[in-house]
Amino acid sequence: MIEFDGNMPDLVDPVAICAFEGWNDAGEAASNAVKHLAEAYAGAGRMFAALDGEDYYDYQVHRPMVAAVDDRRQVIWPTTRFSVVRAPARLLPGDAHEEPRDLVLVHGVEPNMRWRSFCEEVLGLARDLGVGQIITLGAYLADVPHTRPTPVTGTSSDEAYQALFDVEPPTYEGPVGITGVFQEACHHAGIPLMSFWAAVPHYVAHPPVPKATLALLRRLEDVLDLSVPTKRLAEEAQSWEAGVDELAENDAEVGEYVRTLEEQRDNEDAADSPEASGEAIAREFERYLRRQERRRGSSEEG
């Protein structure tokens, strides 16, 4: 059951962005991306609904927390919460303005039971809100070096999205978390969905991993044509990478392992370079220009 805090919001061209803590969220990169969107656009976002955790969570696995809220002690129960932020209108060439759009942020803990019912409730609310597009975010542990750009894999079963946003049809086979189950539920419900997953270096996966969070947000900027304030996060990502560099310099075994991963990554990039056709280069350059244009038309956080 979904519990509402006030009335259902009246939204403009809403898109839902979902992330779930736990198995799907290495380094908390995905959940921190959703948190960043809430803070960047609206201070903390406006939470308007939450699932009744009694239906989906084992409190001996995900224990409630006690915290001081408004000068009194309060039990905070694990659940999935829904908030909304409005991405501001951006300036277009010729002093025109594009309409703002609302982002429905779905952030919660991976449920312990009744996953199909969980997905049905989330999708039911999405329909009621008029959500026409859903994006799920995830992160996984991988043999990737922290010194190279964070790989972000994009997938969608929607052929139009595959052509428009340069994402691939899903091919993964194996165990899945709630994110994978939710993706299938969206597909069967006929709601267009894309999924983006960041690869987190397994040897430095202790959260937070701001570089992976930043990579997910950059991908969201591209596909949603947004400009997300990320100045502070970019600085945190640089500090994080510098800290891991220091670790690798002071630990010979870690340093050697990182160099091995760098060599593997560079060899893979070199092997792929003949396939970097003029069309692919042009597509990447166009994405870069769009991103730069968006940033010139919106203010970064101070």
From TrEMBL:
Residues 261-280 are annotated as: Disordered. Pfam families: PAC2. Coiled coil: none annotated. InterPro entries: Proteasome_assmbl_chaperone_2, PSMG2_sf, Rv2714-like. This is PAC2 family protein. It comes from Catenulispora acidiphila (strain DSM 44928 / JCM 14897 / NBRC 102108 / NRRL B-24433 / ID139908).
